[in-house]
Amino acid sequence: MDRCIVLVDAGYLLGAAASLLAGEPSRSRITVDHTALIQALRERAESETERPLLRIYWFDGAPDRVPQPEHRRLRVMPRVTVRLGALTRSDGRWAQKGVDAAMHAELTELARNRACSDIVLVTGDGDLLPGMMAAKEHGVAVHLWAVQAADGDYNQSEDLVAEADERRVLDRVWITKAVRAKDLGGVCAPPPVPRPEIAAILSAPLPESALAAAAERTAEESEHAQAAAASENGTQERVPAPKGVPTPKDLAALRAPGAQPAQHPANATLRWSSDKGWVDRPTAEPPDIASMPTLAQLTTAEQRWADREEDITTVGGDPYEVGQVFARRWMERLGDQGHLQKLSGMYPRVPHRIDGELLRYAARFGLLAHKDDQIDEHDRYAIRAGFWREIDVRTAAEHAPAGE
Length: 404
Prior knowledge:
Helix 4 runs parallel beside helix 5 and helix 14 runs parallel beside helix 17. By secondary structure, this protein is an alpha/beta fold. It is built from 17 helices and 11 strands. It has helices spanning about 10-20, 35-50, 70-75, 100-110, 130-135, 160-165, 170-175, 195-205, 210-235, 250-255, 285-290, 295-300, 300-315, 320-330, 340-345, 350-365, 375-400; strands spanning about 5-10, 30, 55-60, 80-90, 95, 120, 140-145, 165-170, 180, 270-275, 275-280. About 45% of the residues lie in helices and about 15% in strands. It folds into 3 domains: about 5-180, Rossmann fold; about 210-265, no CATH class; about 285-400, no CATH class.
């Protein structure tokens, strides 16, 4: 039939795009607008083959073959079918299993059934060579598309290139219509609007009693360590000098049960380092903050269904955007606006319950799964920055003079 079909190896397409734009093939280094990418693939295929599109097949790997957020968004798009292989981890690296076999089976079946006149392959794997040859024997024209290689060389099997009827290269200009590299250097998202009350926190000195007590305790620990080293080795080992500024662990010890009265100042607080310098943190959240309602408590069953639909169809998965979406929903459903004022006064700290729920929500978009299964600090900062920016916009609008 006079139609075209596109078979996309997502691992190749997005990995090669990451190499081209970010310098390494890790898909976590790029952000993809899947709607724009699918539309660009459709338009390019119809233009190159001069045939209307029947369908785009998107082949990708997923842990236990469970669809990830991007797969759920893709499979509800018109003319898109998602086929998943397994994603396994070996020697600290993720590898796809079964994707090539699925592409080969689909390619040969479509050609055998004469479902189309032209097939576009976006892949570089030579394992598809037998399938390509079989498709040609059934009278199907095979178009092979490559992603521009970062080093200017081939990133496809030479045999695959030689056997294709037509070959095209998706260059940087085409790729950047739907894919962009993440900025992982420094701050990866616009900082929240400056807050005047933070200046007082940043300029507040540590309590003198806390400094003295921590320095004294550190000195005692150093003496014990030196004595132990001398008794074990018979030699005097060099021990680092005491630190002048106590750590959060030092200050936490001052509030431990059984601490001496002189070492337990009533106003002792934990002071944590952050992108804004040293920020005071109270050792426990006030009851009214700890009991602040979560988004789950404010959401009805109907709203939960609508939220999931929005997540699948319109939320792109950018960490900054995810934080904004979560904050917008929380504020819209918050009955007592006094909670919003209390939250605004806690900047830059997000209450524990809400922060945990925010990160769990972000996990739906695959933002927290990175190499070594660790949460990426840049993404966490961007998620919270988006959350605070949305809070700032709402509170600024409520306090703006009339007529502005």
